[in-house]
Structure formats: structure tokens, C-alpha cells
Amino acid sequence: MKERLIGTTIFVASLLASLAQAQSIPRMPDGKPNLNGVWQHPYVSDMTKDAKDQKGAGELPFTAWGANDFKTYDPAKFDYTGHCLPFGLMRSINVGGYPIQIMQNDQYVSLLFEQNTWFHVIYADGRSRPKDLEPTWFGTSFGKWDGDTFVVDTIGFNGKTRLDTVGHPHTDALHLTERYLLTDPQHIAYEMTIDDPKAYTKPWKNTRVFTRMKPGEELIEYSCEENNRDFTEGHIK
Question: Is the pTM of this model over 0.90?
Fold first, then answer.
């Protein structure tokens, strides 16, 4: 009986803590968590550093094509980011030092990237996916709420980008799933799941935490073309 009481007490305490946490986060008029704000995100140059799969961190489940593509990748021959082409959604989120502003209403959640002044719109109004999507650099995103977690499914990539700075590949078959959970007013727990059957034999995940910028800290102008030493000093072909 004593063990049951202890277990019940722990459960109740955990439940009360979860309720208190849920009540402490800012919310929109419709009750959904309010993700609006300017957020700093960590630099993830190599997604294997935080990758979590059944084999353990640091081991990606490459297909034969994926393994060969990564092994032979040489950015000195051609680096699309050095040519100021779009980084793509994954690499834009992985690039550190340049904050992201989230703008949210009941129809859309938009990501404004300081990096290259890019933006990405997530449809959050319950619309159905078109059967034929025009392939794009950032893909097409559809978001929905799972409790207090904002879940984003993105498809329709053109396959011309990389996941991270070290060059882990993806293809046009990529299905990206992101999860945004506001754990307190200052932090978002972020999870990215890569599901690309052409490049990887099974899905794998990477997690990190976004931190709200201080009041008054806003996005600033960015130009990739200005003083681009990759061009002027011949770093890339």
C-alpha cells in the first residue's frame, strides 16, 4: 500500500508540474502556444553529432547511393551556398549565428531567416496537399497542432541542396518532419526527422533547442553577394 501511495504521489506531482508548465507558456487567442518571436538556434554543421537512431549517435543509415554521394562530395568543385543559391530548409535551420523570426497566425506560420533574408511559409489552415507539387529549394510545408506541439510535414524538394555544412545528402524524395514544442517562454524544443528512402535506409532524427533573443534584438539585413570572398578570392570553382 505504501508503494502505491508513493507512486500515486509522484504521478500527481508530475501531472501538476506539466500543467504548471503548460500554463506558463504564452498562447495565442485560440489557445495554441505562441511561437512568435526572434529565436537563436545552434549551429549544427554535422547532423550526425546529434543524430539518434537505433544504432546510436553518429551512424547514419546510408543507402549505397547516399554513402557514395557523401564520400565523393567536394564543395571546392561546386558549393551551391557559395554561389548564393538557396541553402534549403534543413541547412538554413542548421546554420548558426543567424537568428530566425517566427511569425504565427491561425492560417500560417512563417520562418524569416536572417541568413540571406530568406522566408518560408508553413500552411497551418488545414488545407489538403496538392497531388502535384512544383519542386522547390525549401519544399512545401503543412503544419498542424498535436496538443502543444506544432508538427510540420514538408515535401516537394528539388534535391539540389544538402542537409548540413559537411554535406550530408538528400534527394527529391525527402519527407521532412519537424516538431516545435514551446517548453517555457524562452525555449523551443526542436526535432527534425529525415525520411529519404533514396539516401537513407530508414528515418533518423536530430534535436536541439531554440532560445528566444533578448528584447530589442531583431533581424538585420544580409546580402550573400556583397563582399563574397568565395567569388572574389577564388575559393570555389
Answer: no
